[in-house]
Amino acid sequence: MKVVLRDSAVDDLDRILIEYPYIIVYRVDDQRREIAVLAILHGAQGRGTWLP
Fold first, then answer.
1. Does the predicted model carry a pTM greater than 0.85?
2. Residue 13: DSSP 8-state
3. What is the β-pairing status of strands 3-5 and 8-10?
């Protein structure tokens, strides 16, 4: 799977967690026993108001 988030690409080693309304992209490094959070996005729609 290949997903583009702004200027960075999410590759097969990255994981995506959808916990509404958040989308969290992270990578697990088993050797270092570490989790790196690459991006946190808010996926909720607007509530009918829009400001330019």
1. no
2. T
3. antiparallel
